[in-house]
Amino acid sequence: MGAIVLKGATLYDPSHEGGAQRRDLWIDRGKIVRPGSVKKVDRTFDLTGDIVMPGGVEMHCHIVGPKVNLGRRFFPEFDPDDRMGPIHGTRATGRLFAGIGTTTAVDAAIPPLLARHAHLEMTDTPLIDKACYLLFDNNHFVLDALRENRLSELDAYLGWTLSAARGYGIKLVNPGGIENWKQISRKTLHELEEPVPGFGVSPHTIVRGLAAAADRLKLRHSVHIHCNNLGVPGNVQTTLSTMKALDGARGHFAHIQFHSYGGSPDDPTSFCSAVPQLIEYVREHPNISVDVGHIHPGRALSMTGDAPFSQVLHQLTGGRWYAADAEQESSCGVLPIEYRPQKSLVHAVQWAIGLEWYLLMPDPWRLAMTSDHPNGGAFTRYPEMIELLMSRDARQEAMSRMPADLKSRTHLAEIDREYTLEEIAIITRGAPARLLGLDSKGHLGVGADADIAVYRPSSDHVRMFGEPRYVFKAGQLVAENGVIRAEPLGQTFTMNTGFDDGVVPRIKDWFEKSYSIQFSHYSLREEDFPPAVPLAGR
Ligand SMILES: [Zn+2]
Question: What pTM, to 2 d.p., does this model score?
Fold first, then answer.
């Protein structure tokens, strides 16, 4: 692959000062290089009139691992190649991401025990760079260590597991609530100071303990938190108190839309938006970031490490439901859902709450676009969300087809803000790359990975963002007007914190008493996988 030059386009590169500007991009050996620094140029693309952005970065989706495979097996009616469908095969996932100009994606919830298969799938997913967060918050070793305040052992265990299971970050899902539910009670914890039976630690202790550990380990991404009480009316109080439990440590709040509900759990008719209350807190606390988890009208597939929530959803919808446990670590639940905001006031309010987050958050650098794919709908539908953010008229038109009560339960009707292309580039590229600590992603500066999306400007943003003119992955042309031209594999990022070897015998002892598989089979072996790219903490 020789050097190439992209000539004449307007660059939206929000990480660099000065706003959009017309300049040429020089690319050599997969990286953006200084203009003129390469003697021989193989190909020049005339992009006069086009818009260039860094490749999109998806920081919270479910594309590999046990939940996704349960979804594939349990709902064969979903065509794995259907662009608008909620679940895809591995190859289709890579092609569809590249098809909208997204070139990096992080799977949000992998149990370390089941990471092997997730990594095999990542290896089979072309065209994007990948990583995954590992589930730690209902892990028995972690709960014991937190209760006994064995912090250096906790840090060593986290570092060892990130290495053994090739993880990028620490994920929390309904902290403590899963373990509580897995025990005989099948009841969810609602009180955040209530200890998990048998472990004596509360959700707050888990959040505070793991957030502090992520900071001590200097992970590039903070803890990634799916709060307790997802989807419950009135859960704004849970979300606020979880933010406070961080005690100043960094914390990323995933799919915040599902955690921004006012009203009362005893009276579902009181369901309403509590976004302004949360934004007021978030704007004063720079240690906090969010991704939105908006919903799209139409088919979705709920798949979550929060099996208790899955059970609630199953009881509400009556749909087919599948749940599974991962031994000492986690659980998951999968069921299909169809969002019908034109008919259902609850769905309309959820739809509006997602939009409110985008439109009311003053600092786009601490917010990333996600639909918690496939929970809120497929990532392939992001262009529809971009259109709504960029056009107040499009929002008003959509709202006019939804229940009239929507206006009294949300603030969306009064919001005039329209996103600029610069802001779209921030929430889909710059911000998620920065929040993940991926220095070579999300910008177009010298040294960045040459992951690039080229768009033809149009007032039809669904079309513009749904079909880039060109997409480059590591400097290679991979998509052109919706046609895939090449399928390079992409890389997998992991977090390498180092750890105190002294803890391994202790983990082994515990492991052999607790797990159904042998300790020696748990760690992924280098020879089974293409080399990962281990990033150091900082
Ligand atoms: Zn998720």
Answer: 0.96
